[in-house]
Amino acid sequence: MTDSRLIQHLAAQNKNYSDSYSSKGIPGQAGKGLLLLTCMDSRIVPHEIFGLEIGDMKVIRNAGGQLNPEVEKDIVLASHILNCHTIVILPHTKCAMASMALEDIQRKLTDLSNLDFSNFNPRMIHDAETKLESDVLSLQNNPMLKEGVQVFGAVYDVDTGEVNWIE
Ligand SMILES: [Zn+2]
After folding, report:
1. How many angstroms is it from 65 CA to the middle of ligand 1?
2. CATH number of residue 110's parent domain
């Protein structure tokens, strides 16, 4: 399937979707006051995992579901402006970002592209458990976050669909 065929397919599917769309008027603020930070991994379907509906939850995604200064700013914003009172950071099992060393990914990218990736530094995760704990702690201690906002961490299991919450 070429890219353009894929887009044609997507457009047709979207036509079906919009034909039966009935969510007009749902507010932009997340109905459940929930914001999820998770990985871009295609096995994670955020609203389905938690049985949520359109309008219930904000979702921020990146490689690894990692907190970084940009994401942190978005979350601060969402806590005040969008009334997100509960933040969940949700990385997952079998994440490529946590299973490869920086040098390995640089070598792989160079091999695939023939470009020089020696100065390319994606945010690889060295220790998934420690990284999640420190992300949760860092966000909890962000003084700009709206008072009373709660931050939780959990790991999504891509083999079972389970969300395992950390203490
Ligand atoms: Zn991932």
Report:
1. 7
2. 3.40.1050.10
